[in-house]
Specification:
Chain A: InterPro entries: G_SEPTIN_dom, P-loop_NTPase, Septin. Chain A: Keywords: Coiled coil, GTP-binding, Nucleotide-binding. Chain A: This is Septin. The complex is a heterodimer of chains A (422) and B (430). By secondary structure, chain A is of the alpha/beta class. Chain A is 52% helix and 14% strand. Chain A is built from 9 helices and 10 strands. Chain A has a 6-stranded mixed β-sheet, with helices on both faces. The mean pLDDT of chain A is 86. With 430 residues, chain B is an alpha/beta fold. In chain B, the strands form 2 sheets. In chain B, strands 3-4-2-5-6-7 form a 6-stranded mixed β-sheet, with helices on both faces. A 3-stranded antiparallel β-sheet of chain B has the order 8-9-10, with no helix packed on it. The longest helix of chain B is centred in the C-terminal third of the chain and has 101 residues. The N terminus of chain B is likely disordered. The chains are: A alpha/beta (422), B alpha/beta (430).
């Protein structure tokens, strides 16, 4: 992110050759010694020839067996390779989306891709924020280019394509390509490209534009921009054409030559992606996409550049403020939890008290009932006793009467009895 | 189902290319972009007045940095140490360089020079601070790099050794900036004197463990021999001149003496060319890299450690914190806190449950007790009822028996009286 502003600097003439015109070479030497790194993400449905295209682009056989269509979700598989060409060492990482477009419900397809891209940004951000950091030896895993493989239907983009590209265009440099384009005729291809481009524009999808600000490459880049999306064919098989072996696909009706610009745009893709704009892709990733991610992440965490009075914060202040806020936040959470418990205890106590009260009331009622019963019983007892007494009296009175009567008329009976006996 | 993506650093395989791919063009792309961007470099010169600093700068960059219109600091009298910067834009071979020269007039000129290095340190630190703040902003724009990339320290050609001020300054600055010591006005020393002087200086530098900038070896074998030869020449003895003189038909920069011309760019006269080649033509980028990767990083980690660790008392903990960004540190603390809270929550929950259980049990017990008592009373009452019933029944029985008996007696009586009546009638009874 370094920029040289000649602001406040006056131009002075040199009286001879000083020698700082070697600076670009010094920089290049340093870069070459350090080695380069480039990360490509291939997004596209299973079977669109992503792996084959990578092999063709880099003239080598990368990992992988062809995948089946039965993946339950979208996985990202990444492999890193060390390549060397003359004195230039390149650490190339190829990331493939496995299972993209295979599910019945594809709503979440883009999610794992976005997550992957964000993870790489996050890793870099974490490294950048460390107190003791080693940025210059950090292995940059951020995705520099996303090749989006469009199925060669010849009609238009699929809705999955539009949805996915829309989600990715602010996170990565998207280069859409028409895959397996040997299935499309030239006239169909022109219409197809126009349709695709207009659909991208009308949906507001920002694809990567080859830069035209540098005079040395402005012309070729702007020409190539007009050929997007590139219609490619990939092949690692070689066929003899004339007296040369060329990469091609052999059909009964003819041979599609990969590097023949009349047959497909492979050469254009290679030229743009690798030979002319590789460095720009890396730069855009770092200065645009990564910065956007970083800014959003920091803002999310509450970092600001200026305080409410619009005075700039110093880093120290920012961190301290953040820390205080953070600590306060933790304390608040703790306090909240405590309060919640106190509340619950109170509620429960009230509940239990209520239950206790009810219980007592219940038993009070029962007690009362019992008292009533007892009283009834007492009454009954009393009436029985009265009756008993009455009866007793009656009985005694009667007995008395009887004994008197008996005494009086007892002899008569005796006589009678005696006479009877005679 | 979204699976965790694999890390890209897991394993790296070699691959051979069967044919030209084209990424060998990357260096050209880098070249092109760097030329478009332009370069910048900040050079600081430190030394007592009159050691020829301004002249040397002019000689190095073949320009009149300080001229009539822009007089150099040396022509102005200073009471205290100042730090002044001049920015110029120079172009050569399509390459644009923004050159900032930082001068320190007044350095070492006072009678009491204690702390005369402080303004220099402050300047260097403030540039690092600016860069740090720019780098740490949320909205980052293109940042100019105004950090000091190199500090040329001018040693007076006494021929004896380093002065205490020299040693003190270099000791204080060697871990903040790339220090390159130079022997100034070397045309006052004979080659032998110069040799001895250099040896003495290097010895003292090593004794005091001063880390001056070390020109790193370049990969090339040939060059590396060259570099070793050059390293033997350290510290470089330089001569500067603003004047072009004709010597044997050649136009050279030099100093005209009655006894001859000391040529600035003659390798046998002084080490100027060595300095220029190293400083500008081969190692300018490396000076910037070392500033960025070593000196600035040191400044940054010191600054951030002070802010976030709050003067870490526990060194083991601090060391761990250093490998994380302060934000990751806070994240970690947050996680720990969440765990602590969870634990606290479970504990409180347990205590709560236990207490509730206790109380509920008590309630149940008291309910059972009351229930039991109530049952008891009920039973008691029932028993009494039964007793009463029994008594009543008994009484009823007795009563009905007695009544029956009474009726019989009554009947008997009635019969008896009837019989009496009968007998009376019959005249039997008198």
């Amino acid at each position: 992110l370094l920029k040289c502003d000649g602001e406040g600097a006056r131009a002075v003439p040199l009286a001879g050759h000083v020698g700082f015109d070697s600076m670009p070479d010094q920089l290049v030497n340093k870069s070459v010694n350090h080695g380069f790194c480039f990360n490509i993400l291939c997004v596209g449905e299973t079977g669109l020839g992503k792996s084959t295209l990578m092999d063709t682009l880099f003239n080598t056989k990368f990992e992988g067996e062809p995948t089946q269509h039965n993946q339950p979700g979208v996985q990202l598989k990444s492999n890193t390779y060390e390549l060397q060409e003359s004195n230039v060492r390149l650490k190339l990482t190829v990331v493939n989306t496995v299972g993209f477009g295979d599910q019945i419900n594809k709503e979440d397809s883009y999610k794992s891709i976005v997550e992957f891209i964000d993870t790489q940004f996050e890793a870099y951000l974490q490294e950048e924020l460390k107190i003791k950091r080693t940025l210059h030896s950090y292995h940059d895993t951020r995705i520099h280019a996303c090749l989006y493989f469009i199925a060669p239907t010849g009609h238009s983009l699929k809705s999955l394509d539009l949805v996915t590209m829309k989600k990715l265009d602010s996170k990565v440099n998207i280069i859409p390509i028409i895959a397996k384009s040997d299935a499309i005729s030239k006239s169909e291809l022109t219409k197809f490209k126009i349709k695709i481009t207009s659909e991208l524009v009308s949906n507001g999808v920002q694809i990567y534009q080859f830069p035209t600000d540098d005079e040395t490459v402005a012309e070729i880049n702007s020409t190539m921009n007009g050929h997007l999306p590139f219609a490619v064919v990939g092949s690692t098989e070689e066929v003899k054409i004339g007296n040369k072996m060329v990469k091609a696909r052999q059909y009964p009706w003819g041979t599609v030559q990969v590097e023949n610009e009349n047959h497909c745009d492979f050469v254009k893709l290679r030229e743009m992606l690798i030979r002319v704009n590789m460095e720009d892709l890396r730069e855009q990733t770092h200065t645009r996409h990564y910065e956007l991610y970083r800014r959003c992440k920091l803002e999310e965490m509450g970092f600001k550049d200026t305080d409410p009075d619009c005075k700039p914060f110093s880093l120290q202040e920012t961190y301290e403020a953040k820390r205080n806020e953070f600590m306060g936040d933790l304390q608040k959470k703790e306090e909240e939890m405590r309060q919640m418990f106190v509340q619950r205890v109170k509620e429960k106590e009230a509940e239990l008290k209520e239950a206790e009260k009810e219980l007592h009331e219940k038993f009070d009622r029962l007690k009362k009932l019992h008292q009533d019963e007892k009283k009834k019983l007492e009454d009954k007892k009393k009436s029985l006793d009265d009756e008993l007494n009455g009866f007793k009296q009656k009985k005694t009175a009667a007995e008395l009467l009887q004994s008197q009567a008996q005494q009086a008329g007892g002899s008569t009976t005796l006589k009678r009895d005696k006479e009877r006996k005679k | 189902m979204i699976e965790r993506p694999e890390s890209a650093v897991a394993s790296i395989a070699q691959r051979n290319l069967e044919g030209y791919v084209g990424f060998a063009n990357l260096p050209n792309q880098v070249y092109r972009k760097s030329v478009k961007r332009g370069f910048e470099f900040t050079l600081m010169v430190v030394g007592e007045s009159g050691l020829g600093k301004s002249t040397l700068i002019n000689s190095l960059f073949l320009t009149d940095l300080y001229s009539k219109d822009y007089p150099g600091p040396s022509l102005r009298i200073k009471k205290t140490v100042q730090v002044e910067q001049s920015k110029v834009l120079v172009k050569e071979g399509g390459v644009q360089l923004t050159l900032t020269i930082v001068d320190t007039p007044g350095f070492g000129d006072a009678v009491d020079n204690s702390n005369c290095w402080q303004p220099v340190i402050n300047y260097i630190d403030s540039k690092c601070e600016d860069f740090l703040n720019a780098e740490s902003r949320v909205n980052r724009r293109l940042m100019p790099d105004n950090r000091v990339h190199c500090c040329l320290y001018f040693i007076a050609p006494s021929g004896h050794g380093l002065k205490p001020l020299d040693i003190e300054f270099m000791k204080r600055l060697h871990d903040k900036v790339n220090v390159i010591p130079l022997i100034a006005k070397a045309d006052t020393l004979t080659p032998e004197e110069c040799q001895l002087f250099k040896k003495q200086i290097m010895k003292e530098i090593q004794e005091h463990k001063i880390q001056i900038y070390e020109f790193p070896d370049i990969e090339d074998d040939e060059d590396s021999k060259l570099i070793r030869k050059i390293k033997e020449r350290m510290p470089l003895a330089v001569v500067g001149s603003n004047v072009v003189i004709e010597v044997n038909g050649r136009k050279v920069r030099g100093r005209q003496y009655p006894w001859g011309v000391a040529e600035v760019e003659n390798g046998e006269h002084c080490d100027f060319t060595v300095l220029r080649n190293m400083l500008i033509r081969t190692h300018m980028q490396d000076l910037k890299d070392v500033t960025n990767n070593v000196h600035y990083e040191n400044y940054r980690s010191r600054k951030l450690a002070a802010v976030t660790c709050n003067g870490g008392v526990d060194t083991s903990k601090t060391k761990n914190q250093m490998t994380r960004s302060p934000l990751a540190q806070m994240e970690e603390e947050r996680r720990e806190h969440v765990m602590k809270m969870k634990k606290m929550e479970t504990e409180m929950e347990q205590v709560f449950e236990m207490k509730v259980k206790e109380k509920k049990q008590k309630l149940k017990d008291s309910e059972a007790e009351l229930e039991r008592r109530h049952e008891q009373m009920k039973k008691n009452l029932e028993a009494q009822y039964k007793e009463l019933e029994e008594k009543k029944r008994h009484h009823e029985e007795e009563k009905s028996n007695w009544e029956a008996q009474q009726r019989i007696l009554e009947q008997q009586k009635l019969d008896a009286s009837k019989t009496m009546e009968k007998n009376k009638k019959k005249g039997k009874i008198f």
